[in-house]
């Protein structure tokens, strides 16, 4: 009994098989002639109203297109506007915000990591420059430059930094050659 009561009180819409059952039922025998005539008249009226509504909708759509054309709105502008709105809507979703925050946090961590790597490399180069091997190399270059300066005709300076020695060699070479093929070599030495 309870199952039958629930079946009668269902509020869900008709399903496909329910619609088929209603459509196959013959209600015409239950209706009087007068009721049939009223229903036929109502049916004609509804069909006329639907036709009128379709015509009105079509006229309104044409009017809409005319207004859009006058305003310079075309399909491309509408697509741009729709895309902008969709993009904005997507950016306001919780999933996008969470992803954005996660990627931003990851980017900050990556930046910090790269900064640490850069600092470590700079420190290693500094350590390398202060190493005995580099000092020995620097002294050899200074000795070679000093002997070249002597051969070229410049004065020798006792000591000086690597950069000062290179600069003085370049100046001495420029004075002696006057800008020939050695000019390119000097420019390389200055770099």
Compose a concise summary of this entry.
With 191 residues, this protein is an all-alpha fold.
Could you describe the 3D structure shown?
This protein has 191 residues and is an all-alpha fold. The chain is built from 8 helices and no strands. The protein has helices at residues 2-8, 16-24, 33-70, 75-91, 94-129, 132-152, 162-177, 182-190. The longest helix is centred in the N-terminal third of the chain and has 38 residues, at 33-70. Residues 1-5 and 179-187 have low confidence and may be disordered.
> Based on DSSP secondary structure assignment, what is the total number of beta strands?
0
Q: End-to-end span in angstroms?
A: 101 Å
- Structural class label: mainly alpha
Percentage of residues assigned to helices: over 70%
Shape: rod-shaped
Give the SSE order as H and E letters. Answer: HHHHHHHH
Which residues sit in consecutive blocks of at least 5 with pLDDT less than 50? 1-5, 179-187
Rounded radius of gyration (Å): 46 Å
Number of helices: 8
- How much strand? under 5%
Overall average residue pLDDT: 77
Biggest pleated sheet: none
């Amino acid at each position: 009994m309870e199952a039958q009561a629930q079946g009668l009180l269902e509020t869900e819409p008709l399903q496909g098989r329910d619609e088929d059952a209603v459509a196959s039922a013959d209600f015409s025998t239950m209706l009087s002639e007068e009721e049939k005539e009223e229903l036929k008249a109502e049916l004609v009226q509804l069909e006329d109203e639907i036709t009128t509504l379709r015509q009105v909708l079509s006229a309104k759509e044409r009017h809409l297109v005319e207004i859009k054309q006058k305003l310079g709105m075309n399909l491309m502008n509408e697509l741009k506007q729709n895309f902008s709105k969709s993009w904005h809507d997507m950016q306001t979703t919780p999933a996008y915000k969470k992803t954005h925050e996660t990627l931003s946090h990851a980017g900050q961590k990556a930046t910090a990591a790269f900064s640490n790597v850069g600092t470590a490399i700079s420190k290693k180069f500094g350590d390398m420059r202060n190493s005995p091997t580099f000092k020995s190399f620097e002294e050899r270059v200074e000795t070679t430059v000093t002997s070249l300066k002597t051969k070229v005709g410049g004065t020798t300076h006792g000591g000086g930094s690597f950069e000062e020695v290179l600069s003085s060699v370049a100046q001495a070479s420029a004075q002696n050659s006057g800008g020939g093929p050695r000019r390119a070599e000097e420019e390389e030495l200055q770099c």
